[in-house]
3-dehydroquinate synthase (Psychrobacter glacincola), 369 residues
Amino acid sequence: MTSPLFHADLTVHTQSHNYPIVITENTAIESNSMASQVASYITGQQVLIVTNETIAPIYLKALQQPLEAQFTVQVCVLPDGEQYKTQSSINQIYDVLMAAHFNRDVTLIALGGGVIGDMTGFAAASFMRGVNFIQIPTTLLSQVDSSVGGKTGINHPQGKNMIGAFWQPQMVLADMSTLKTLPARELSAGLAEVVKYALIMDAEFLLWLEHNLPAMLALDLAILGEAVKRCCQYKADVVAQDERESGVRALLNFGHTFGHVIETHEGYGNWLHGEAIAAGMVQAAELSQKIGWLTSDDVARVKRILSLANLPITPPPIEVQTAFDLMGHDKKVKHGQIRLILLKSLGEAVLTNDFDPHLLTDVLAKHAT
Ligand code: NAD
Ligand code: MG
């Protein structure tokens, strides 16, 4: 086994337990390294790998075969897509667990992007009132965001992520070499969340990204690994302070209220999550400018970095009233007043409802037709 070029270990501190995020650059397919890195976090004899039809042909064997030498391994291969992030997919996972007579000792392993991670986590949170699970995120988005922090869940036909649980994994293994097979559009979608961290917490990281984004797009795995490490550290710090999103964790939803309007209006899956968040962050920046917090140069900089990442900076046309209605279903609405995460400056975010609602209408109207 060749030694990885990039390697970093972080620890996430939560109320239930602390767990490691291992960010590394293995040759995921050729070596047994994926399996050997997760094996020590499997406590019982039973393992269920949950993945999908796209990822299974590329990575499943490299993970499954070495684990079979040590554990009783079952596999659940789900169809690929956000539209399958449903209760019926969760039932399929339970079906495999029940048929195998697996019990509390089972460890579920999520091998895939955020969709597989969220569903596997939710199945783990609910099966027998909670069993262990491990995240192996294979998209940039899931490496920097969804695999860290313990939010798990599925969609309801009337709303995204409406059913779920907080459930922390035993470990997260982010193998940067899996990004080599990720479609370019998905890589860009993940970059939206990376840019998000810079915009809400670290102006210096924004500068770093402005310099390093081309290398990331060219799949420089060490640079990608460094970016993932920074993002996971930001998220781990926030989660340690506020696991259940009663305060600072909400800031991670920057761009998401606007983005959820786009995702819901366009139908799940047509706009990628990261693409919707990119356009949503531009809207949030525009509102921040109207309030007087950002300059027009700041907003231009937000648009430039997102364009550099090949992301959309304009939402699709959505009627103002429709947008308001869709925001009403968002979990960030409290007492009928829309609270949004806005930027005080580049690198500093606030959750606030203290703005003239007409300014929000103006931002929505700008893109209504
Ligand atoms: P995804 O899981 O749908 O993956 C994107 C696509 O890439 C899929 O087609 C997948 O099969 C494919 N793919 C994944 N890894 C691959 C690889 N290495 N090579 C080739 N193809 C690969 O999408 P995503 O962007 O990873 O995740 C989006 C989901 O994450 C949404 O459902 C969102 O709600 C959720 N999310 C959750 C949290 C959280 O805190 N739990 C945070 C952010 C997003
Ligand atoms: Mg997100």
Summary: The radius of gyration is 20 Å. Residues 286 and 299 are 7 Å apart (CA to CA). The mean pLDDT is 93.
